[in-house]
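dumping the sequnces here before i forget
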Amino acid sequence: QSALTQPPSASGSPGQSVTFSCTGTSSDVGGYNFVSWYQQHPGKAPKLMIYEVSKRPSGVPDRFSGSKSGNTASLTVSGLQAEDEADYFCSSYAGTNTLVFGTGTKVTVL
Amino acid sequence: EVQLVQSGAEVKKPGESLEISCKTSGYSFTSYWVVWVRQLPGEGLEWMGSIYPSDAATRHNPAFQGQVTISADRSISTAYLQWSTLRASDTAMYYCARRGLRNSLDVWGQGTTVTVSS
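..and the predicted 3d for all of it:
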């Protein structure tokens, strides 16, 4: 079970958009529409931002959006704000009640 | 309100045993998988394993199979993560989470720091 691949870092200025990827295989990302994204600020527990590829839980701003094509999922943060600076992790269902996480992307607001 | 409250920080020596807990409230404990996640210092998230409290079914990441035991006590809506022999490499933050909305981890515990040092 290999970790999903994410770019180590991404950045943008306030108000801009940033998009980063999460690449897996046909056994996880490509095989199921159960990709989730989590935001983690330093010293805090992760927070669910996107589930089922593109759905937002209640309370998550619509600046956050997700998509998927083949074995690659993506998270876009539009209208970047200072509080969006955090680590972001994707995860995917991988069959038989197993999960796999991505390697994580550190988002910096310039 | 759905809550997962984890036990406090632990400092142990190599070779010792340990059990940390995750007490849940605000939902039907037996209706959702509870997941354990490891985060090594400065590193990413790793799925360790999960338990379905209704029938105590478990699933493990092969990397952790045989290294930890995952259990649950339905009577007190609490999940556990146990080590029989700790190693320095087990030093990490451990989170429990509820597998809720369409296979996502929708509610997380606050985390338990485990430090293993001689």
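Chain A touches chain B at residues 1, 3, 32, 34, 36, 38, 40, 45-48, 51-52, 55, 57, 87, 89, 91, 93, 96-104 (CB under 8 Å).
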